[in-house]
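Quick one: sequence plus 8-OXO-2'-deoxyguanosine-5'-triphosphate SMILES, need structure tokens.
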Amino acid sequence: MSVSVVVGAAIISDGRLLAAQRAAPAELAGGWEFPGGKVDPGESDEQALVRECEEELGVRVALGERIGGDWPLGPAGTVLRVWTATVESGEPRALEHLALRWLAADELYTVEWLPGDLPVVEAIVPHLSR
Ligand SMILES: Nc1nc2c([nH]c(=O)n2[C@H]2C[C@H](O)[C@@H](COP(=O)(O)OP(=O)(O)OP(=O)(O)O)O2)c(=O)[nH]1
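Reply:
Sure thing.
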């Protein structure tokens, strides 16, 4: 079975991380995540992530470092790959999410992250002060 890849952007500005609240599906709605989504056939991970940020937030992002490796998500064989990112143009808007929040280091756990995202959030902490 092929691995299904979901890519996520840890968008950082002024030491804050952008968190996005899912609108759908019902079982995930209300949970917080990294903007991103599934990689389409023929697309690289990085291309998919830039495309998803345009679709979901209306911004052009520049990708930075990869955070860790393949983070397992719930369904067997699905992994999450995360890159740091900065906004190159535009101001993020919740075009497909319920809400967006810029979280400072001491606010990271004030939102209910999707369960698979929690270890990734932990791994991002050192990147907020760079
Ligand atoms: N985008 C994103 N998805 C995540 C994260 N954590 C996590 O468990 N997921 C899960 C939720 C979904 O089951 C799946 C991503 O699906 P998606 O619905 O965002 O993908 P997509 O934009 O390509 O949408 P579609 O093709 O299914 O319509 O991965 C995360 O931080 N970001």
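The first strand starts at residue 4 and ends at 13. DSSP finds two helices and seven strands in the chain.
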